[in-house]
Amino acid sequence: MIGRLQCVVLDCTAPTELAEFYAALLGGSVDRPDPRWSLDADWATLHTPGGMVLAFQRVPDHRPPQWPDPAHPQQFHLDIGVADLNEAERQAVALGANPLPRPSKEDSGAEPSWRVYADPAGHPFCLVQE
């Protein structure tokens, strides 16, 4: 092992607002004091209940990915496990998530066990049935 993952950093135009979106989605505390980072208007953090840290970095000319356009690739995405896909979707959309196109059926012919959304800054993420 060379190192440990400290956090996942998402570029955006409004770091605190995006941190608050993910706090409402995942729980945790926004901008908790942490000696690894200084917090300012260009950087916000979310310490999740499971110990993972998401960080949000201001990029004034941020251009969000477009799903599923390979000319504007997603760059990365988060998979978020949920017990009830429909209820999780309702709550995520109420927080400001935007549903993105998804396949109508998986190879098995069943409804997909995951759904794709964009966060308020345009980053894709999936809600996945546990």
Automatic annotation (TrEMBL):
VOC domain span: 4-130
InterPro entries, per the entry: Glyas_Bleomycin-R_OHBP_Dase, Glyoxalase_6, VOC_core
Region (Disordered): 95-115
SUPFAM superfamilies listed in its UniProt record: Glyoxalase/Bleomycin resistance protein/Dihydroxybiphenyl dioxygenase
Superkingdom per UniProt: Bacteria
PROSITE patterns, per database record: VOC
Residues forming coiled coils: none
CDD domains, A to Z: VOC
Pfam family, one: Glyoxalase_6
This protein's name: VOC domain-containing protein
Organism of this sequence: Sinosporangium album
